[in-house]
């Protein structure tokens, strides 16, 4: 594994030395840093402990037979510290709300609202929140779900959207596979000049080692 990482680093540095476009240089620099970090980590490093989910709000023990209608329609706004989600619905009983907030998700269930059960949930938020500070407030014609941001800043969306240009450097997989996917995505999304730069750099780097992996995209 250490030998493979060393070869990958050497190849990425070569690509970096011949690339010209700022975006390409930035992405290559980022991946070089990632591989250097992987190669320096001790195999005996202990896995980071994941904090246990913190549940807040009134807990209701629903019957296994309960069914929920998903609240797909809602509005939201934000400031630098919080995100507020507005659920328009009359007849909400504050004592029959089940809410669970985790660092990157939330799940709020509204029981017995005019004879029906509703659910508002996002499995992966745009950014992390502080579970113990989040809450649900009931108004006459709506409920307000307040999410407290773990770090200040603007969210582009409520849900997390993965950047396909960022390779997945899973320690259990070949790091070079993620880099190849990144280069292919850059090639597909780039303009003519970027495609020429990437194709030439990739061909020069692989010369004498393997066939050009981007040949099928030309």
TrEMBL record:
This is Calcyclin-binding protein. CDD domains: p23_CacyBP. InterPro entries: CS_CacyBP, CS_dom, HSP20-like_chaperone, SGS_dom, Siah-Interact_N. It holds the Pfam family CS. May be involved in calcium-dependent ubiquitination and subsequent proteasomal degradation of target proteins. Probably serves as a molecular bridge in ubiquitin E3 complexes. Participates in the ubiquitin-mediated degradation of beta-catenin (CTNNB1). Coiled coil: none annotated. SUPFAM superfamilies: HSP20-like chaperones. The lineage of its organism: Eukaryota, Viridiplantae, Streptophyta, Embryophyta, Tracheophyta. The gene is Cacybp. Residues 69-159 form the CS domain.
């Amino acid at each position: 594994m250490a030998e493979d990482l060393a070869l990958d680093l050497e190849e990425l540095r070569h690509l970096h030395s011949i690339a010209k476009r700022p975006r390409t240089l930035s992405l290559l620099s980022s991946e070089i840093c990632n591989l250097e970090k992987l190669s320096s980590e001790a195999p005996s490093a202990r896995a980071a402990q994941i904090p246990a989910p913190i549940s807040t709000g009134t807990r209701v023990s629903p019957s296994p037979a309960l069914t929920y209608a998903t609240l797909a329609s809602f509005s939201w706004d934000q400031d630098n510290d919080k995100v507020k989600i507005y659920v328009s619905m009359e007849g909400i009983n504050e004592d029959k709300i089940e809410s669970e907030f985790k660092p990157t998700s939330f799940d709020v269930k509204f029981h017995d609202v005019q004879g029906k059960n509703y659910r508002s949930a996002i499995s992966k938020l745009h950014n992390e929140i502080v579970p113990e500070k989040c809450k649900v407030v009931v108004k006459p014609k709506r409920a307000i779900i307040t999410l407290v941001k773990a770090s200040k800043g603007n969210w582009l969306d409520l849900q997390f959207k993965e950047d396909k240009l960022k390779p997945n450097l899973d320690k259990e997989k070949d790091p070079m596979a993620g880099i190849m996917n990144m280069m292919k995505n850059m090639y597909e999304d780039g303009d003519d000049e970027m495609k020429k730069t990437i194709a030439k750099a990739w061909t020069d780097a692989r010369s004498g080692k393997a066939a050009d992996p981007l040949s099928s995209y030309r």
